[in-house]
Design brief:
Rossmann fold; Sigma-54 dependent DNA-binding response regulator; alpha/beta; 19 helices; 478 residues; 44% helix; 14 strands; 4 domains; Helicase, Ruva Protein, domain 3
């Protein structure tokens, strides 16, 4: 059950808010001032904080700063009187999730709370970005080094960036690095998950609305573009924006201007847009679900994040990082991992990518007796050598157990290489030797596939006359 902490010095408002939220299934705790509320938060925590902006002793801004410092994944919603809307906007720029103005409809607060709950759940499952720009990105493999080079070249430019990659590869981390390495780093960095916003509310979320624009719009409210003015706007899950909204987004990007919902005044902003998706936008374009002109406007600088199985050499470094992180968080003293256990982690396919690895390390540390993580501490699928992503629902057979003089680590590496070669050969056969299509089937980049083909001596075995580059009707590489 989602836990909501409500801070307000008006007793009647606390009572009404608590009753409303409990009816909707939330676990509600109330506090009559900021000091009491922060004591409750630091003692028992909360998933969402709703706080009045103006309170005696400790105000809403101090509550926001304290909550963000303790746990930046907890959304903070500001309640403010009409006369302090400017202060509420500043709170948004300082990291507040959203704000509502008194008087407000209960349905308005309910919608904001529901949105915050989705955002908190998404943040809880994801890899938390660090505001130390690209120094927070873990890895030294060639593929991640290529990403570093792009960040260094384009971070301090106004060009739009489209980050693509499988779920769990760290797209929000890259967006944070781009903002943190730019001259906009001291300006707002506004993030919005397009998948968490109902389609009929996307326009008002992005561009704001005027009072009376629709039922429940009891006051005017700026959108995310206005809040990000001078800074960066990160649109995660950009593929979820409905087609009818895409033309308005395109205009805002091209012209740097827009109108609020229900308004006639044109607003101009200076915003650097960063977008991300785990969808195949080329397929969405072909299906009529995404505008081609918007795609090309977004993909001025494309960044393709490799799956974790494409950068296995980074796994030891990631494991060390997550062991250190969860030793501190869980008050554990695990010193590291045995070679055999690490070899199993490197052989595993990681369909959930870095997010799956982080969650696994947290779970292992909870139950490990230490001082080292061993094979017996790992989940059954990893211990059994489930090493490859499936080409079909059934997937490839698991690696059989071996015994003998050869070490477990060497056996796992050999079996992983054999399976990789077998999967690549089958994919090339299935696609008639077309490297681009085979790469898509294997869910790796064409560059990675070409490297693997060279490693396994498969270049010469590809059918003659098949161009390894993308054909004219296939679109750009992923």
């Amino acid at each position: 059950m989602t836990k909501v902490l409500v801070l307000d010095d008006e007793a009647n408002l606390r009572k009404v808010l608590a009753a409303m939220l409990r009816r909707e299934g939330y676990d509600v705790t109330v506090a009559e001032n900021g000091e009491q509320g922060l004591a409750e938060f630091h003692k028992n925590g909360a998933d969402i904080v709703v706080t009045d902006l103006v309170m005696p002793k400790v105000g809403g801004m101090e509550v926001l700063r304290s909550v963000n410092a303790a746990n930046p994944d907890v959304p903070v919603i500001i309640i403010t009187a009409h006369g302090t809307v400017d202060s509420a906007v500043e709170a948004i720029k300082a990291g507040a999730f959203d704000y509502i103005t008194k008087p407000f409809e209960q349905s308005e607060l309910s919608a904001v709370i529901a949105k915050a709950s989705k955002a908190h759940e998404s943040a809880r499952r994801s890899v938390r970005p660090d505001i130390k720009a690209r120094t927070a990105i873990i890895g030294e493999s060639p593929l991640i080094q290529d990403v570093y080079k792009i960040i260094d070249k384009v971070a301090d430019t106004p060009s739009t960036v489209l980050i693509t990659g499988e779920s769990g590869t760290g797209k929000e981390l890259i967006a944070t690095a781009l903002h943190g390495a730019s001259s906009r780093r001291d300006k707002p960095f506004i993030k919005i998950n397009c998948a968490a916003i109902p389609h009929n509310l996307i326009e008002s979320e992005l561009f704001g609305y005027e009072r009376g624009a629709f039922t429940g719009a009891v006051t005017s409210k700026p959108g995310r573009f206005e809040l990000a003015d001078g800074g960066s706007l990160f649109l995660d899950e950009i593929g979820e924006i409905p087609v009818e909204m895409q033309v308005k987004l395109l205009r805002a990007l091209q012209e740097g201007e827009f109108e609020r919902v229900g308004g006639i005044k044109t607003t101009r902003v200076d915003v650097r847009l960063i977008a991300a998706t785990n969808q195949d936008l080329q397929a969405e374009i072909e299906g009529g679900r995404f505008r081609k002109d918007l795609y090309y406007r977004l993909a001025v600088v494309p960044i393709v994040l490799p799956a974790l199985r494409e950068r296995r050499s980074d796994i030891p470094m990631l494991v060390r990082y997550f062991v250190d992180k969860y030793n501190r968080r869980l008050n554990k003293r695990i010193e590291g991992i045995t070679d055999d256990a690490l070899a199993l982690l490197q052989a595993y396919a990681w369909p959930g990518n870095i997010r799956e690895l982080e969650n696994l390390i947290e779970r292992v540390l909870l139950f490990a007796d230490g001082p080292l993580i061993t094979v017996k501490d790992l989940p059954e699928p990893i211990r059994q050598g489930d090493t490859s992503p499936a080409l079909s629902p059934a997937g490839p057979p698991a690696v059989e157990a071996h015994t003998g003089e050869t070490g477990l680590k060497d056996i796992i590496r050999m079996k992983a290489a054999e399976l990789e070669k077998d999967l690549i050969t089958k994919a090339l056969e299935e696609t008639g030797g077309n490297v681009t299509r085979a790469a898509k089937l294997l869910q790796i980049s064409r560059k990675s596939l070409q490297t693997k083909m060279k490693e396994f001596g498969l270049r010469d075995s590809a059918p003659e006359g098949k161009d390894e580059g993308a054909s004219k009707d296939e679109g750009p590489d992923e």
